[in-house]
Amino acid sequence: MGLIDDLKNRIWQYQNTIDDDRQRIDEYNQKITEIERIYNDMKSEKDNLINEKSAVQAVANESYNNWNGNLYANEYEPMLVDDVLNGSLQLTIRAIDENLDALNDAKTRFENKISRTEGIIGTLEAGINSLWNEVENLMN
């Protein structure tokens, strides 16, 4: 009976490992879903800011014949270009890009943890996933 008990114990250990892996995979998938939600919201905000930046750029590039003197050219337009376009809007868009990259990196880490539970093919898949993550971050 010792051999049968040993085999039953090994089966039980393998089953516990499988159950633990499935539970972790479920947790990782929940985190991936939440990261994707935040990523999409942030991407939408970035798109809105880019549209606003384009609108401000159009105002800055517009010619205003009804302005008297050089107030527009000397004060208003430089403020728009320096403070708004190249200042706060650009810094905010850059900060969003950095956060999008960080979210993308976190998502990739969880996806790779899931892939690595699938043996050698999963390890290769994780490597490819990491490369795609780098490309996506560069395109962001």
Task: Give a quick set of tags describing it.
mainly alpha; 140 residues
Care to give the gist of this entry?
By secondary structure, the protein is mostly helical. It has helices at 2-61, 71-115, 119-139.
Report on the architecture of this protein.
90% of the residues lie in helices and 0% in strands. The chain has three helices and no strands. The protein has helices at 2-61, 71-115, 119-139. Helix 1 (2-61) runs antiparallel to helix 2 (71-115) and helix 2 (71-115) runs antiparallel to helix 3 (119-139). The model has no long low-confidence stretch (mean pLDDT 87).
Please describe the topology of this protein:
Blueprint: H1 2-61, H2 71-115, H3 119-139
Helix pairs in contact: 1-2, 2-3
